[in-house]
């Protein structure tokens, strides 16, 4: 090989554009005879994969057809042609198109096709303009952002800071530039901040958290920060830290936390106090009721004047009503204080419902309300606290009777649901509850009826909440459906694991 040939090959390989030589093989085939380094990068192939191969062997069908048609035009006319590069070539080099020139012998016969790539100068200028626009946009965002931003170098020195950071913390730009950013952190957090900066900028990981920053006036600001690492030319690394002052938010959180703690403490004290007052409140009331009953029955002789008898009846009635209120308040307080435990046992739920209905029948009769039961014949037994379930039924039936209109009907039903749960359903035809006040009715002391005209319905507002709390203790659910003047339906559902099938009696 001559020196000239060597120089030409060296020039061919070093060209700053993709270049390869193609030879016609047969009437419909073109193979690669030589390719420089940029051509190999363009196709993302090695020399072994391309040299001596037909273009169909290493190009996708669309690109191969595009090149072959161009080669055929160049071959048939024996003159140079220009083609545009198609997208989708896997290599890292991007070109706008190719010059294809025929190489002829002395007799004007085709020897080779010389293919030279055209660098995409237009695209490069677009990229440059987009890069400049992006830098301008980022600079504007940096300056106008309401979030404080500080840029630090590898050693933690501040190299740039925006106006928001200066406004928030009071330091001037001259005082901040070239200062150690950890010097702005309170002494108790300074060492940790220094270690964090070294780790973040070394590893490039993103982070966020809270830190305390010293203002120019000496006050301390609670701040929320986020960090990101940027690597520029020559592997220079910088850390961008955004900082937001959350001092007011932290003060509000602390105030709310203190207020909640005080409210919780007061509520617990109230619940514990009422629970502990159970004996002290009930004992005198039981004495009043007991003595008034003895006087009503004239156990130790006649009272004398008829008015005394009327007064004693009023005292007895008022004392019983007051005892009911006290019992409800104390029961709710015990539940809130966590002082009620379930006395588990198996109960005949069907018999329990029927006994409560019999007990409430006289009250319903006095209010001209009819009680109707519809209970599945083979209703299973229930595992739970019979005293609490009895109280639930009494409360719900009492409410249904109290809020029913004269001549109305209260239906008490119980049956199994398809999902294995047991449901008790109590429906009345009474005054109902506005839909927007149903949640209020379920809250302790949440009376829905207001005003003197509704005084006949007044009470503690604990009947439903107590029933719901007692059902919750059994992992059950109590819900309400109601419309004003259309009546109310209460649903009580008990979970499947509390259902105990009745034992069938063997036939003789």
Query: Oligomeric state of the chains?
Result: single chain
CATH class of the largest domain: Alpha Beta
Considering DSSP H and I runs of 4 or more, what fraction of the residues is helical? Answer: 40-55%
Shape: elongated
Overall pLDDT: 82
- Give the spatial strand order of the biggest sheet: 2-1-5-4-3
Q: Indicate how many domains the architecture comprises.
A: 4
Contiguous low-pLDDT stretches (5 residues minimum) are 450-459
CATH homologous superfamily of the largest domain - what is it?
A: Histidine kinase-like ATPase, C-terminal domain
Described by strand count, sense and barrel closure, the largest sheet is: 5 strands, antiparallel
Q: How many H/I helical runs? A: 16
- Helix vs. strand class: alpha+beta
Share of residues in strands: 15-25%
Proper CATH architecture of the largest domain = 2-Layer Sandwich
> Between the first and last Cα atoms, what is the distance in angstroms?
119 Å
**CATH fold assignment of the largest domain:** Heat Shock Protein 90
Radius of gyration: 46 Å
| DSSP strand count | 18
């Amino acid at each position: 090989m001559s020196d000239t040939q060597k120089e030409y090959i060296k020039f061919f390989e070093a060209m700053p554009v993709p270049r390869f030589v193609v030879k016609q093989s047969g009437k419909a085939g073109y193979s690669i005879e030589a390719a420089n380094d940029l051509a190999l990068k363009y196709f993302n192939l090695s020399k072994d994969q391309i040299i001596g191969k037909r273009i169909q062997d290493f190009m996708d069908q669309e690109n191969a057809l595009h090149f072959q048609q161009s080669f055929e035009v160049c071959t048939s006319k024996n003159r140079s042609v220009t083609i545009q590069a198609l997208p989708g070539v896997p290599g890292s080099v991007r070109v706008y198109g190719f010059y294809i020139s025929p190489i002829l012998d002395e007799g004007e016969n085709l020897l080779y096709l010389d293919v030279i790539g055209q660098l995409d100068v237009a695209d490069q200028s677009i990229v440059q303009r987009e890069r400049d626009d992006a830098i301008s946009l980022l600079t504007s965002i940096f300056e106008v952002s309401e979030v404080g931003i500080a840029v630090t170098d590898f050693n933690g020195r501040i190299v740039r800071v925006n106006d928001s950071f200066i406004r928030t913390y009071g330091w001037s730009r001259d005082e901040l530039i070239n200062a150690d950013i950890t010097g702005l952190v309170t002494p108790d957090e300074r060492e940790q901040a220094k270690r964090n900066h070294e780790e973040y900028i070394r590893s490039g990981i993103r982070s966020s958290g809270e830190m305390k920053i010293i203002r120019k006036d000496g006050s301390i600001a609670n701040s929320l920060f986020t960090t990101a690492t940027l690597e520029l030319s020559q592997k220079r690394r910088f850390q961008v830290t955004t900082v937001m002052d959350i001092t007011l938010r932290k003060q509000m959180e602390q105030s709310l936390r203190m207020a909640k703690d005080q409210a919780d403490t007061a509520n617990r004290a109230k619940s514990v106090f009422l629970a502990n007052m159970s004996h002290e409140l009930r004992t005198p009331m039981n004495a009043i009721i007991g003595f008034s009953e003895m006087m009503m029955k004239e156990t130790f002789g006649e009272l004398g004047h008829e008015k005394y008898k009327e007064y004693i009846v009023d005292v007895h009635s008022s004392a019983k009503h007051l005892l009911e209120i006290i019992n409800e308040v104390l029961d709710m307080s015990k539940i809130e204080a966590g002082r009620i435990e379930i006395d588990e046992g198996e109960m005949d739920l069907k018999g329990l419902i029927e006994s409560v209905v019999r007990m409430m029948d006289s009250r319903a009769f006095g209010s001209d309300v009819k009680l109707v039961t519809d209970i599945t014949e083979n209703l299973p037994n229930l595992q739970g606290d019979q005293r609490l379930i009895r109280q639930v039924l009494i409360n719900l039936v009492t409410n249904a009777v109290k809020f029913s209109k004269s001549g109305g009907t209260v239906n008490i039903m119980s049956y199994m649901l398809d999902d294995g749960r047991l449901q008790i359903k109590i429906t009345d035809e009474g005054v109902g509850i506005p839909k927007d006040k149903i949640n209020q009715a379920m809250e302790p002391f949440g009376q829905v009826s207001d005003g003197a005209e509704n005084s006949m319905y007044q009470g503690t507002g604990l009947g439903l909440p107590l029933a719901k709390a007692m059902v919750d203790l059994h992992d059950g659910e109590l819900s309400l459906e109601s419309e004003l003047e259309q009546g109310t339906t209460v649903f009580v559902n008990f979970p499947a694991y509390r259902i105990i099938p009745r034992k069938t009696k063997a036939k003789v």
